[in-house]
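Kindly review both lines to help learners:
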Amino acid sequence: MRYSLFKVLKDGLTGNRHLTPAWRDAAPKPAYDIVIVGGGGHGLATAYYLAKEHGLRNIAVVEKGWIGGGNAGRNTTIIRSNYLLPGNEPFYEWSMKLWEGLEQELNYNVMVSQRGIINLIHSDAQRDAYARRGNAMILNGAGARLLSRDEVRERLSFLDYENSRFPIKGGLQQPRAGTARHDAVVWGYARAASDLGVDIIQNCEVLDFLFEDGRVAGVKTSRGDIKAKKTALAVAGSTTRLTSKLGLRLPIESYVLQAFISEGLKPFMHGVFTFGAGHFYCSQSDKGELVFGGDIDGYNSYAQRGNLPVMEDVFEGGMALMPLLGRIRFLRQWAGLCDMSMDGSPIMCVGPVPGFYLNAGWNYGGFKATPASGWCFAHTIARDEAHPLTKAWRLDRFRTGHVIDEKGVGAQPNLH
């Protein structure tokens, strides 16, 4: 079933009587060629590209809850490729290019809006750092503009430009960045993967792994054992809970990252911006709500809920930058569970146990990486080798000293 304007009109005129589920809610089979644990954006995108790009069809995606109920539905929807280091920037730029054609690729409206992002500058040293980052972006084809104070004020007139403590001196803009509808992304990938024969198994929690001859041979789930020639893990903040069952201790800590939304307002914010002197970022949704967030909670947790001190910290940062926030009613809050690596960069590799493949450590960057993560992880699983864009993300880099220290992106877990 393909979506089109003609189909929308036809369904509307016939009372939507011919609508069918977007994807098959499959029951688990005894065995598959590949089992992907985690039905979020990364797991579903991996399954889709395995089927489309590598011709593999006997695949299952196993999700303990429902599609769109995890981190995929608990983020602030921002997509961007404004990274600095060569181990990261080419990957995120590839992801940005995939975002730009994703709706046509999936035949699904994921509401990609390239409204741009501005990282605000508050000191001369920060301007130098952002100029360096912008040059790295330009060298990788991402595009960047260093804005003056007046240019920022022209675009973000509602900010406090008279604040002597946090003076706004300019900004680094990526015009191609923006937002996408978070849950629509997983629904689109689920539908496209299902159409290619992938089994999407919801409400199926993985309890342990199956082993045969020293290799991972599948998973034990709440709905029975499922054997697999290859088992891949893409479960974000729950990674260490499952890898511990393999006897693996990973350089990852799980933290809660909260997001917030205001009441609906008339449109006045036409892009995304971030506070350079604190941890606060904000955009306005198509419905008029302000979507904003800040720093992670200051303690390890596997719970998808936040706490009041961090809410206060985020609101303080927002008020310092945007005083109008104090007159807006706060509507609701949610929290995602982030797998924070020790250097702020992901891990994607053939796992240290035969038959096992690992996709983890995305820190704050998981949602924006969704298309390229699926593309590259599918390559890793299908060919048993790292994709050229992710060769630097091997697990043993922490042992050998080849870390990718993306400052301002990672967990800084030593501070917590």
Q: What stands out?
A: The domain at 114-178+253-341 is CATH 3.30.9.10 (D-Amino Acid Oxidase; Chain A, domain 2). The chain has a mean pLDDT of 93. The first helix runs from residue 5 to 13.
